[in-house]
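Many introductory courses stop at the sequence. We go one step further.
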Amino acid sequence: MARYTDPACKLCRREGEKLFLKGERCFSPKCAFERRSYAPGMHGRQSQFRRKESDYALQLRAKQKARRIYGIYERQFRRYFREAQRQKGLTGVNLLILLESRLDNVVYRLGFANSRSQARQFVQHSHFDVNGHKTTIPSYLVKPGDVISVSESSRGKQYFQDIAQTLGEGRVPAWLSLDLSNLTGKVVASPSRDDIDTTMNEQLIVEYYSR
C-alpha cells in the first residue's frame, strides 16, 4: 500500500482550506496555504473559476477531506464506514466518533503531539502506553475509562520534558482529561458530535458510500 510522500500543504490547497496537518507551521507565515490558496498543479488557478461542482464532486471532496485530516487510507476508511453503519444512531456521526477514538488522534487531542502524523509516529515508536500496556497501533480505538500515558522510558526525553512545561489544559476537549504532572490523559466519555471541531459534512460522506 503506497504512502503519501508529497508535501502535506498540497492536500490543504486541494481541499481549499487549512487541514492543520503540520502543527504549529500551519499558524505561521510559512504556511503554504497562506501564500497559495488555490489547488496545486498547472491548472490550479483556473480551478477557482470553474462552474459549480456536481453532487458527486462535493461528496468525494468531503470524503477525501476526512481521510486526509485523520491520515487514513481508503480501505481502512471504508472499514470504519461499515462499522459505523452497524452501530445504532446516525452513520455519519458514528463514523466521526470512530475516527476521533483512534489512539493517534487522542494523543494529538491531549496535546502530546503537534499534529496527527507526529502522534502516529510517537505511537508507532512505543512512546505511549494504554492502561499501563505498551501500545504501538495508531488505529487502536480507546474506550471511556482508558488511561493514555507517556511510557516510562520516554519521560526523560527532552521533548516530553519541554511539553510538560508548555502544555495547557485549555485545548483538551471535554471528553478527555489531562494530568500534566504525570503526563497522562484519560478518556472520560465517548466524544459527541459537538466535541468534534473539524469542519466536515459527514452526511456527504454517507451519501458518497451509499451511491
